Amino acid sequence: MRLSTIIFIIILLVIIGIQFIEVKKTNPPVTADLNAPMEVKTIFQKSCYDCHSNETKWPWYSKVAPVSWLVSKDVEEGREHLNFSDWEKLLPAKQRKLKEEIWEEIEEDKMPLGNYTLLHPSAKLDLMKKQTIKKWAVGN
Length: 140
Fold this sequence. Notes:
The chain is built from seven helices and no strands. The protein is mostly helical. It has one domain (3-138). Helix 5 runs antiparallel to helix 7. The relative contact order is 0.14. The model has no long low-confidence stretch (mean pLDDT 94).
């Protein structure tokens, strides 16, 4: 057998083998979901909840390694920083601080992440959606 064929077979076996590595894909109970105006909540549900809530919709590619590892990591980190499913448990001062951070991230086009909107173009925030969030977040 040629060396290139052996290398191809090894790579193929590795790709198949990594599919059996389990990744954490959970949706814990929603205990204190965000209480916001419906237009704000609808925007967040479409653009943010997959990473920032316990209501993640795990797409087909979240089952295919190594992409599954990246998706799981993004969701875990997103929930650690901001989890709308626990929003109402937060003290008002913490909610205000997070609102400021939410608006800052959106204003600077850091959220939603580019790799997310690439696969979910409807999650992109247009000017009108941004203004709706700004009004909620900073009251302007």
